Structures are given as structure tokens and as C-alpha cells.
């Protein structure tokens, strides 16, 4: 192998390394920014309010009893989203759906039957579920990894995730909660929505072994 062949190989290797670095550096920056954004969300008022709302719902309203989640969540959902009169348990599911349709047909504004989103249990649950699903995606990626997630978060988050999983299971078992209003029709949620507990279960398995308190 002469000198020209060696130089050609070196140039090829350098070019390949440049291409790889040109891909990896922006990717690492992108994932680092995504992870930092999650940290900002974690320190936000909305996150703290959502955790408080979810924990109080389970501990105070459900008395830490998972069997009560379905009924209590249905009651809160119908009261906070569609109006207090829709939460009467003597009504059948069909009657509740008809009431929802009638309210929609009257073009009632959100203020007529709801409240601030930060105080609505359903939105609190969705905010936290999305946060932990995004955190799970970061934990699965080699630029972040589960060790870093375990270092930056605590097992107290696992306690919150466990409540979210229980609520998710209750929603799956509820004909009312598994449907949402779209235009003038009540339609089923898309199938992929029901897979959220898979991500929550995975991030739960990571955080349950994390430290109990945040290091300062």
C-alpha cells in the first residue's frame, strides 16, 4: 500500500467522521434542549398545581381507594367540563350523552359550564401524563438515558405516576370517560390514546428506584 492509498483512506475516514459528527452534534443539542424544557415544566406553577390536584383527588376524594377512582373521576369530569347538573348519578350514560349534545347545540361558551384549566382535574391529569410520557422518551434515548433521569428526579414522581396509571385504568373501564365530544357527535377516542399507560409504566419502573428527595 503506497502513500497515496493511505492518504485516500484517511480522507475517507475523516469525511465519514465529519458526516457522523454533523448529525450527532445537532441531535445532542436538540435532545438536551428538550430535556431542559421538561425541567422548566417541572419547576412551573402549572406542574405543581397539577400534582397537588391529582394527589388531593386520590387521597382526599377517593380516600386512597383505587376502586373509587372511576366514579369520582366521572363525577369531577362531568361537573367541571359540562356542568354540575350532568353529574347526577341517577342518569344513565345515554341520558348524560344526550344532555351533553343539547348543551353543545346551545353553543354555550366554556365559561358557562367550566372553570380555569389549572383547576380542572381532567386537564391536570393530561398535563402530567404528557409530561411523564415525554420524560420516558428522554429516558429511552441514549443522549439522555435513565441514569440521568434518575439523578434529576425522585421516587416521589413515581408516586404521582402510580396515581396516573390507576386513573388511566379507570378511564379505560368507563364508557363515559372513554368518549369525548367532537362537533355534534360523541365519538370514541383514538386507539393509540389508550397506550399511554405503557409509557407511564416504564418511566414508573425507572423513577421508583430513584432517590427519595431532590439533592440541593
Describe it.
Helix content is 68%, strand content 4%. It is mainly alpha-helical and 216 residues long. The chain has a two-stranded antiparallel ribbon. α6 packs across α7 (145-152). The longest helix has 40 residues, at 3-42.
Strand content: under 5%
Shape assignment: elongated
- How would you write the strand order of the largest sheet? 1-2
Q: In which range does the helix fraction lie? A: 55-70%
How do the helices and strands follow one another from N- to C-terminus? HHHHHHHHEEH
Q: Quaternary status of these chains?
A: single chain
Average of pLDDT: 77
Please give the number of β-strands: 2
Global Rg: 24 Å
- How would you classify the helix and strand content by structural class? mainly alpha
Q: Describe the biggest sheet?
A: 2 strands, antiparallel
How many angstroms separate the termini? 59 Å
Residue windows where pLDDT falls under 50 for at least 5 positions: 181-194
Number of helices: 9
Write the layout of secondary structure elements.
Layout: H1 3-42, H2 45-61, H3 69-82, H4 93-105, H5 110-113, H6 121-140, H7 145-152, H8 155-172, E1 179-182, E2 185-188, H9 196-207
Helix pairs in contact: 1-6, 2-6, 6-7, 6-9, 8-9
Short description:
With 216 residues, this protein is mainly alpha-helical. The chain is built from nine helices and two strands, in the order ααααααααββα.
List keywords for this structure.
216 residues, mainly alpha
Amino acid at each position: 500500500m503506497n502513500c497515496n492509498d493511505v492518504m485516500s483512506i484517511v480522507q475517507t475516514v475523516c469525511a465519514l467522521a465529519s458526516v457522523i459528527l454533523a448529525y450527532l452534534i445537532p441531535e445532542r443539542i436538540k435532545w438536551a434542549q428538550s430535556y431542559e424544557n421538561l425541567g422548566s415544566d417541572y419547576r412551573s406553577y402549572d406542574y405543581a398545581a397539577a400534582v397537588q390536584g391529582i394527589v388531593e383527588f386520590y387521597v382526599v376524594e377517593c380516600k386512597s381507594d383505587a376502586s373509587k377512582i372511576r366514579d369520582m373521576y366521572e363525577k369531577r369530569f362531568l361537573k367541571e367540563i359540562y356542568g354540575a347538573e350532568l353529574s347526577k348519578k341517577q342518569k344513565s350514560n345515554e341520558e348524560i350523552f344526550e344532555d351533553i349534545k343539547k348543551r353543545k347545540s346551545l353553543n354555550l361558551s366554556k365559561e358557562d359550564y367550566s372553570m380555569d384549566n389549572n383547576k380542572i382535574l381532567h386537564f391536570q391529569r393530561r398535563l402530567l401524563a404528557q409530561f411523564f410520557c415525554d420524560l420516558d422518551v428522554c429516558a429511552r434515548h441514549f443522549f439522555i438515558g435513565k441514569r440521568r433521569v434518575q439523578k434529576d428526579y425522585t421516587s416521589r414522581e413515581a408516586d404521582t405516576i402510580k396515581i396516573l396509571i390507576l386513573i388511566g385504568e379507570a378511564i379505560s373501564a368507563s364508557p363515559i370517560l372513554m368518549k369525548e365530544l367532537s362537533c355534534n357527535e360523541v365519538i370514541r377516542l383514538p386507539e393509540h390514546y389508550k397506550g399511554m399507560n405503557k409509557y407511564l409504566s416504564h418511566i414508573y419502573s425507572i423513577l421508583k428506584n430513584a432517590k427519595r428527595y431532590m439533592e440541593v
